[in-house]
Amino acid sequence: MIRVLVADDEAMVRAGVRAVLSTADxxxxxxxxxxxxxxxxxxxxxxxxxxxxxxxxxxxDGIEAGAQIRRHLPxxxxxxxxxxxxxxxxxRALGGxxxxxxxxxxxxxxxxAGVRAVxxxxxxxxxxxxxxVVAHLSATGxxxxxxxxxxxxxxxxxxxxxEREVLAHLGGGLSNGRIARRLHLAEGTVKAHVSSILARxxxxxxxxxxxxxxxAGIVPPVQAPPR
Length: 227
Description:
The protein contains eleven helices and six strands. It is of the alpha/beta class and 227 residues long. It folds into two domains: 2-119, Response regulator (Rossmann fold), CATH 3.40.50.2300; 140-216, Orthogonal Bundle (Arc Repressor Mutant, subunit A), CATH 1.10.10.10. The chain has a six-stranded parallel beta sheet with strand order 2-1-3-4-5-6, sandwiched between helices. Strand 1 (2-7), helix 1 and strand 2 (27-33) form a beta-alpha-beta unit.
């Protein structure tokens, strides 16, 4: 059973997230919080597998709350919920150790898939979030966007064929174990590939690597939700 903490300053949103997650028989909401500081306190008390955090909350925003949770509970994965117009928060969250990025207006199945993926040690960017991050990073115009995509393809091109395959699946939200099964490799081999990929791309975490994968256009457009 995957234990989940839900934090949002709007009671109706918390109720909606809980209702969505309750439809999955492997997810259990063990705690709720109405602000970022309470989210950290509840996480320390209940030690959830995944913390689902709204970006904008009083006392402590979801980015800082997520970073504190990750510092104290490195085994707890963080999923950030955003709305349109909050792209700068996503970029901050990438640096804070968050592994999942979802929009509140997304499909319920995406929320369930994202929580499962992060609980399994994967990074998960919903397609809408990935597209927005790439666009935000290239906000200076079409030329900048083309330049970033070309730079991402060049960085990915420096990887081995196997590393590119691993990166594509990583960008699609798969954990090491699922990538190993998909590519018929030992999980330890996949872990070594991921470490090499992060170093060669010059990024700090799987979520940032997933952004590069999306920028380079190597993530399949249709992905089955991680189970």
